[in-house]
Amino acid sequence: MTTTTLYVARRILTMNPMQPEATHVAVRDGRVLGVGNLAELSAWGPHVLDERFADKVLMPGLVEGHSHLKEGSMWDLPYLGWFDRRDPRGKVWSGLRSMDAVVARLAEIDAEMTAKGLAADEPLIAWGFDPIYFGGERMTTEHLDRIGGGRPIVIAHANGHLMNVNGAMLRLAGITRDNEVEGVVKFASGEPNGELQEPAAMFLVIRKIGDAGLLAPMTEPGVRAFAALACLQGVTTATDLVNKLGEADCAVLEAALADDSVGVRILPAFQAFHGTHGAAQGAEHVKALVARNTDKLRYGLVKMMLDGSIQGFSARLRWPGHFNGAPNGIWVTAPAQYEADFETYHRAGLQIHTHTNGDEASAAAIDAVERILARAPRADHRHVLQHGQMIDAPLFGRMKTLDLGANLFANHLWYWGDQHYEMTLGPDRAHRLDACGSALAAGVPLAIHSDAPVTPLGPLFTAWCAVNRVTPKGRVLGEAERLTVPQALRAITLGAAWTLKLDHEIGSIECGKRADFCVLEDDPLAVDPMALKDVRVWGTVLSGRVFQAGTATE
Questions:
Q1: What is the DSSP string of 222-250?
Q2: Cα 187 to Cα 189: distance, rounded to the nearest angstrom
Q3: Alpha-carbon distance 68 to 72, whole Å?
Q4: 36 φψ region: left (φ > 0), alpha (ψ -120 to 50), beta (else)
Q5: What pLDDT, in 10s, does the model give residues 334-350?
């Protein structure tokens, strides 16, 4: 006979408006059988009363609608970021607060590689760097060529849209003054300076060293490390929002997620830009993969890109452009090609998530979707604009009419808010950065995200950003765009589930849904909003299986 387990908690926040709170939840066969009090749920018959959460708070398992599995595997490479950061093993990597400190760390790593007997042509690959924090100074070959004996050096920026390389890597990649690929930045003399912007330019390096410098290889240990991080942050469902989904990638995903000790559900999105498949072939590939879906692995998403990164100056901005006068950014996909490919995937019945950072890119996506829906109407398509950092009220209004969802990158308010205010956007537009309030006012379905590893995985921190909108310098950017705590919690549960077409299965604790819970030591509705990021996570429950953070499964 199937066992029914009744969990008791000091408070259960269901995110179901018809029954927002309870004290008990009944679980059978990995699903929620009922929510209520002990007397009500006992009517289901024989059960086991589990009191391990009696002093804790339960809410739906948190949903990270824009992340990347490389958050688990990037830590095999040295970290060069501005902020201190904790890796999956618990090690804290100190932030580097000057260009000299970055160069010094690279020199240490180079010396360690030499001491280990690694050949002089073995590349040094690191990640997490972002020059925007260094007062306008950009890294060039003049910095990197101070290091060592000519080992190729590749540094992936935190945003994933740029990289820096040294002279040895330029030579290995065949990048010279005569190279005309868009995104190869040059000195005034015409010689390449070592900064490469966006996929076309970075591919010149990746074809020589593999994708470890940009996308981190798909490995089972990396997936397991990601799952461990997810448990620490209360996440039960997450995306891998760029994946080539070749057979080797799928084999790793399927093997890792078939293991009961891996406690996270993953939705990998097919990389429908700069890929090996044309749109028609890509659509058939994704549709064929759906037949291999399990509870913990869900194929079916498609990822497209229009522009780059605001802080990397490769996003596409409408007039008046960048506040510091930098030239407009790069079309990762030409708008006409984007529209043609989008229509192919749309007509195939697939759900498309589009990367748009700048408002020119968001407007181009909205224009294209409007034309496509006029030609090929489709109910409940659930297409989503991802990041959408500069979408304003009129654009949100248009999105509502087209039934487009928004997943906004709220973490930017903390990690780059001051830089957007002072350098990239200026004060006016910085106040409408990631305009969550305007999205809800327009009736646009809303999620918020971390884009891990661009910023650390942690939906409660993301909710804190959207609620408080504070920067490291103490600015409040767009007070009118703040979310309430309940609104923010919905954006990281039911709102994110909607953007993944899983709100019928996850995102709230109610009868029939997956028994996915985030187990908290503190009550997010009782703490001061400024303490929301500090709410402690005990662990998770995924389809009825309990995972305590930092330990093995039950």
A1: HHHHHHHHHHHTTEEEEEEEEE---HHHH
A2: 5
A3: 9
A4: left
A5: 999 999 999 999 999 99
Q: Could you tell me if 79 and 126 are in contact, meaning their C-beta atoms sit under 8 angstroms apart?
A: yes
State the pLDDT at residue 550. 83
What total of structural domains would you count in the chain? 2
Domain that holds residue 232: 63-69+216-545
CA dihedral defined by 476, 158, 389, 380, rounded to 10 degrees? -130
Alpha-helical runs (H) found in 58-197: 70-73, 99-115, 141-144, 167-173
Strands 265-271 and 153-157, sheet pairing: unpaired
Task: Give the CB-side neighbour count of residue 97, counting CA atoms within 13 A.
Answer: 3
User: What's the pLDDT band for 552 if we cut at 50, 70, 90?
Assistant: very low
Specify the pLDDT at position 553.
43
β-pair partners for 154: 125, 165
pLDDT score of 372 more than 80? yes
**Helical spans, DSSP H, in 126-219:** 141-144, 167-173, 198-209
Please tell me the pTM assigned to this model. 0.94
Are 234 and 286 part of one and the same domain?
A: yes
Model confidence band, residue 215 (pLDDT cutoffs 50, 70, 90): low
Contact 213, 125 (CB under 8 A): yes
DSSP letter for 361, please: H
Nearest to 269 by CA among 72, 69, 71: 69
Boundary residue ending a domain (213, 230, 261): 213
